Amino acid sequence: SKQAHLMELLKKEVRAMLIAAKAGLTPEQLEEQYMAMVCKPLPLRDLGFQTTLELVTQMPEVVQIYSKNGTLILKAIADDSTKGIAQLVANQKVKTRKASKKIATKANLTFPTKNSKNPQSFQTVSAGTPVLPAAVKAELQDLLSSSPLLLADLGKAFFRRFGRAFQYRQYGFLSMFEVLRSMADSIVVEQTKAGSLLVLRKFLARTIEQEEVPQEEEEESQAAPAPEVPPLEPICETENFSQTAHLIDSEPVQTQAVDLGDHLKQANYVCSVRDETSECHLPFIPLQHQGLGEFPLTPEIPPDAVQDRRLCSLPLLKRRCLVGVVVEFVVSPSQFYVRICSTEASNKLRDLMFEMRHVYSHKVASDKYIMPESSVRPGQLCCVMVSKWWYRVIIHRVISEQEVEVFCADYGRLQIVHKSLLRFLKWHYLKLPAQAIPCSLAWVKPVEGRWSNAAILLFKQLCRFKELVGLVDEYVDGVLYLFLCDTSTKQDVYFHSVLRDMGYADVCGENIPSQEFEELNPSALYVQPSEKQGNAEVVEPDLCLQQESRDADNETATLKLDGAEM
């Protein structure tokens, strides 16, 4: 019956989730995990149950229930096909993890040959350090950018700023100190009488520079009154930007007669009350008094706005090379996106997100880059705000008068957003290559023609919040086929072997073109291959001449990308 079929499918999914959780899950955590992975709640009512606990009690061959400190814990009961996987999870390291070194120098994997009966004939690799998502790293750094913070106050401060608790365990960390060790390149922990003090390295560097000011300069600064520091605002790149800023929230301070023919002969001159040294040049002339109201003002596109350009991809990885990766988005084992794990690449993406947030979150700058309706079209490179952060995206399709679907070039996901959140991308933000790499798991194919929900769920669990080792096999139609290995356990876990052992995949010894990517590959549609860039540079347009020479510029300007260090 339909209900029996649903129950059998659910048993496989529950077993897969519980096997991946070494310490087990509470019923509430199981509900959350299922919702996160399958994007719908447990089908309790469809099966005639009121609670999750009632459901799992009807799975005695799948779930073991026991109590720990008064809390019910659910653990998986492995069957013949999953005993090996359960043993690997049981052997997973639970103590402190050593920081991962450069994979290319530390590891030496043996590339599997097509004649190999065991495709997982790799040597041991040491990696697997938990990794915070780039957006979470940026949030922590943003939190510390204004001033240092005591570790004891971090949780409350994070909740006040971002409206949610900082749950580091969901990213694979066992303690907050592990999180801080993973961010040692940007956060310093200093011991004080009040406790551990978290200091952003950039903030610490500024403090040291201030302490090293020559004594003569210090005496001069004491003799003269210190000028008031203006509020932090984005650097104005054009005169129009600066002038517009003076028109916002300011009062008229002077009037002067001007010759307007038959129209109003007096105009208000305004300047910013926050800057006493600024000059007043702009006349504020109400249009309704001039007879000019019938001429609608069309927003002028900023000269440094990207209109007819594309991001380019990262340079191709060499065959058989090893690389640290984080899986950012999963559709199936045949369609997912990874991001390269290297200090240089991570820092560049983090700095880009910080700068975009700083610029576009300022109202004057944000309004300047608003996109007119004529520019909201498929293929347009722009940026969008999601949860207070700005991302580089390409418009994939216009859904309605209010919404569009966009492709995030640095994280690989398609997402529906409101048109009002779109902004032109500044030319400066073209330089960093698109960080998301379209991938497919090498040498595997689904046993049933298409990947089952249980197989996709298991693959997501294997990839979740971990730095993995990828072994490059080849590129097919712009898609990277690679083997994935989790080295955070005593025995390395090879994803193609796990899927085979669970009965979800066949290891075929060759790469079958991804059916999902054949149907839709946004990277191939919107991201320019790196080899087409040659040795040309990304040249920002001349702010004065760009409007006059746009046609010529479209034909002659080319892009250059410095390959990310692997």
Automatic annotation (TrEMBL):
Keywords: Cytoplasm, Developmental protein, Differentiation, Repeat, Spermatogenesis. Its main location: cytoplasm. Residues 211-230 are annotated as: Disordered. It comes from the Eukaryota. This is Tudor domain-containing protein 5. It is found in: Cytoplasm. GO terms for cellular component: cytoplasm. It comes from Aegithalos caudatus. InterPro entries: LOTUS-like, OST-HTH/LOTUS_dom, SNase_OB-fold_sf, Tudor, Tudor_domain_containing. Pfam families: OST-HTH, TUDOR. Residues 6-79, 128-203 form the HTH OST-type domain. Residues 211-221 have a biased composition (Acidic residues). GO terms for biological process: cell differentiation; spermatogenesis. Belongs to the TDRD5 family. SMART domains: TUDOR.
